[in-house]
Amino acid sequence: MKRIKLTVSYDGTNYSGWQIQPNAPTIEAELDKAIASLTGENVHVIGASRTDAGVHGKGNVAVFDTSSTIPADRFSYALNRYLPEDIQIQKSEEVDKDFHPRHCDTKKTYEYKISNTEFYLPQERRYSWHVQAKLDLEKMQEAANYLIGEHDFKSFASVHTQAETTIRTIYSIELIAKDKKEGKDYQGEIIIRVKGNGFLYNMVRIIAGTLVGVGKGRFESQYVKEMLEALDRTKAGETAPPQGLTLVEIQY
């Protein structure tokens, strides 16, 4: 037996998230089905990040064990023939048999995309959150800086989170504005790029929703520090919609 690591990209629009659920399409189920079709083995992949319904992935990671003689680096080519167009393996490689994608030190990078325009672009509706109001990016970055470092992020996690601890470390949060229209209140495309050692259920979406609240003037930037200290989900901002979120990369 050998353990194969897959780097998986997907458009999450048509799926109920990564993790297998009864009577619902998921990324994990499609991968299991493709591997069974290719190898004849009834295996179950282990994913690094169990993204929510509607969330996208460019660099999620999954592993599985197989006795197939297919070379490790050829699994990506072979499996892609069995996968739907909205899921594709970007890389396959052999790893140590004890490698577990969720039990390692990692740096995960997520990006949340906001379409800050007067009218939304139909082709962006599946991949961004349309926010029409003017956003103050300087205040949003000021607020984001309070979240950098090791903190208890209980205020920024869904009340349904089942994590043993809500302490996480954020290494960086960058706000990137693209296609700014001169003379307009609108910023065009805004990316919130967050890198951390791990994230709680809905954490990045709550951070995005909170920063947009700051950008709209609903919260003062320094109030984010009080949100953290409150350890109370009701003190932070709204949960941004899932379609703007993409898991970009996992570094081991």
TrEMBL record:
EC number(s) on file: 5.4.99.12
Subunit composition and interactions: Homodimer.
Keywords, ordered alphabetically: Isomerase, tRNA processing
Name of the featured protein: tRNA pseudouridine synthase A
Active site: 52
UniProt function note: Formation of pseudouridine at positions 38, 39 and 40 in the anticodon stem and loop of transfer RNAs.
Xref: CDD domains: PseudoU_synth_EcTruA
InterPro entries reported in the protein's UniProt record: PsdUridine_synth_cat_dom_sf, PsdUridine_synth_TruA, PsdUridine_synth_TruA_a/b_dom, PsdUridine_synth_TruA_C, TruA/RsuA/RluB/E/F_N
Family: Belongs to the tRNA pseudouridine synthase TruA family.
Matches recorded under HAMAP family: TruA (MF_00171)
Domain of life per record: Bacteria
Binding site for substrate: 110
Residue ranges constituting the Pseudouridine synthase I TruA alpha/beta domain according to the UniProt record: 8-102, 143-252
Catalytic activity: uridine(38/39/40) in tRNA = pseudouridine(38/39/40) in tRNA
Gene designation: truA
Any GO molecular function: tRNA pseudouridine(38-40) synthase activity
GO biological process terms held by the UniProt record: tRNA pseudouridine synthesis
